[in-house]
Structures are given as C-alpha cells and as structure tokens.
Specification:
Length: 162
C-alpha cells in the first residue's frame, strides 16, 4: 500500500495508509481541493484529480428535520488562524498598557496583517478574519494612543522650557 501525504492548514501532513486516507475523505477531513502526493506522482495533485480515488463516498448530509450545521462534520469546520488569535489577544492587551500600549499594539498589527494575508492565499478555508480585523483595529488604536501621549508630552516640555 502506498504512503500518502496531504496538505493541511498546518502544512504537509502524513504519511498515512490509503485506508486512513479514505476514512479522512469519508469524514470530510479532506475536501476535493486538498493536495495529495505519494511515490509515483510527479507533483502534488488535487484529490479530485486522482483517478484511483474517484470512487469516493459522498459528503454526509444532515438527516431530515435536523437543522443545517447540527450534523457532525456537516459542513466541516474550518480551523481558526493562530495569527488571528494572536492579533486579537495582543490588541486586547494593548488596552491595558495605558501609556505604552504600542508595545503589544505593534505585534497585534503585524499578526493581523499576516493572518489576513495567509487566509487570502490559503488553499484551504481558514476562519478568524473577524478576529484579525479586530486585532488590527485595537493594535492601530494602541499605537495612535501612544503617539498622542508622546506628542502631548513633547509639546508640554517645549512650552515649559524658557
């Protein structure tokens, strides 16, 4: 049995046996756009382009009467971006740093931009866009607050000196 490798939001994963691969497909863990590779393949290939895996079980559907999203694995939950979480946490922390709120504000802005860029360029669905945007807003506010304090302090010092 060939050993399969698959792309995931965390990067390359595997190796897994074909039996495990088919179980992951059946559970909805792997979608038709997932990239796969094994010995004998020239390059990474989309799951829906592999003839040996065309007889795939269909995605599970919710039983009649069950609300959309209540059935486990339907639709599969997209993982949340760790950078988006970091951006939001740093942005919230910047609210508590008073005069030095730019210290956690700068990482909030950096992580927020990296998260949005990674989500935009990802082959896989990734959630957390709202967290990344909230982290960006809080980070920029923290930086602006610190700059305003510095400007006020400089103006005060200039006016106090003869």
């Amino acid at each position: 049995m060939p050993q399969w490798y698959y792309g995931s939001p965390a990067g390359q994963s595997g190796p897994v046996e074909e039996r495990q691969l088919r179980e992951m497909i059946a559970s909805g863990h792997l979608v038709p756009e997932t990239l796969l590779w094994r010995d004998g393949l020239k390059d990474w290939t989309r799951l829906d382009s592999l003839p040996e895996l065309h007889q795939l079980p269909s995605a599970p559907y919710a039983p009649p009467g069950m609300p959309y999203g209540a059935y486990p694995g339907y639709p599969p939950q997209a993982p949340t971006s760790n950078l988006a979480i970091a951006s939001l946490v740093c942005g919230i922390v910047s609210l508590f740093f008073c005069y030095l709120s730019a210290i956690p504000g700068i990482p909030a802005v950096i992580c927020g931009h990296l998260a949005l860029s990674a989500m935009r360029n990802s082959l896989f669905p990734v959630s957390g866009r709202g967290m990344a945007i909230a982290g960006l807003v809080l980070g920029y506010l923290g930086i602006l607050f610190t700059l305003a304090i510095v400007v006020i302090a400089v103006i005060g010092i200039m006016q106090a000196s003869p």
